[in-house]
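Team,

Forwarding the record for the chain on the shared tracking sheet. I've put the sequence and predicted structure together so nobody has to dig through attachments.
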Amino acid sequence: METYSLHKKINIVLDEETRSYSARGRRMGALGSMNIGLQSMPNNGWIHEGQIPGILFDESNKEIISSPNATILLKLYSSLDTESKSDFKIYLISNLRKDSPYVSIGYFIFFVLYRIGETIDALKNARRALSGDSQHGYSNLLGILSMIISREYLDIDPTIYEEIKTVLIGDTEHNFQLFEKINLALLKHLEIELGDVNPEINTDRDKVLELWGKKFSNIEVPTLIKEIDDYFREGDFSPTKFATCIGRIRVLLVEVSKRIALGIAKSNSDNSVTESSEEAFFFQYLKNKKFISDNEWNILRSLYGMASENGAHSLISNREYARLIRNISYEIILLFVSKYEI
């Protein structure tokens, strides 16, 4: 696609957005074709005494904010090759300046750039070349950024928030509580990150690691536990990530049973257990030697079976299912390691 032709197509949409903005004016903070305005703050209206006014909406949802004109531009962008996509971004960013014919719709240009992952470059250019314009272009841009954060706070990576704060340090424009919203958004991310943290389970995990280090030289178990916990620090579980995580839990159950079985066999000069024995044999051996009870054997086998399921679960999320298996596994492993005597 020739550059002129691409710019002409973009201008058609920008001209229509300019018309929309002019037609709606700035009544109640209206923003052209956007389905939200600067007055669309979260939790407007009365609050009960003692409550703190909300600055983020109760639910993070990337499907709320929209614009028919933005949809057209985003479709155009998706149809381009790599070189033309780069030109698309550069052209839009170049119009975030005071002498641009589209200065009044900086909010719209920024929204499109945000949707295609150019938030920081757009914001940097806007602050440098658009700040202080007489048509409220920069102020409205900050307003739409504020609304994006209020509505989509969990869809924005925490590193982007840190970059936004760096760009806006010292900004004297009305910031729509941007720094307060960013801090609260980061708090929401932290809550999600810590959502799986159970102090009691973590204490028992640490006891497993401590006892294992005293009783075994094998480092595979501590490594597996670290890998499993790392998966839970990385956010939501895709089907692939879920399958990998519970696969590591299955390997952990086998590795603990194997090391204990080999230790018992060695102390009894029993050559029936080897490194290459079948996984189920280790479980059965521990039961036969009365190291674990019938009920404990049933739990171990059930956990192994649950940790072998790679499909999605309709009633609970992949993350919840994996957390359940992990937590029970840590508890049963602690029981086994505590009982094992060198």
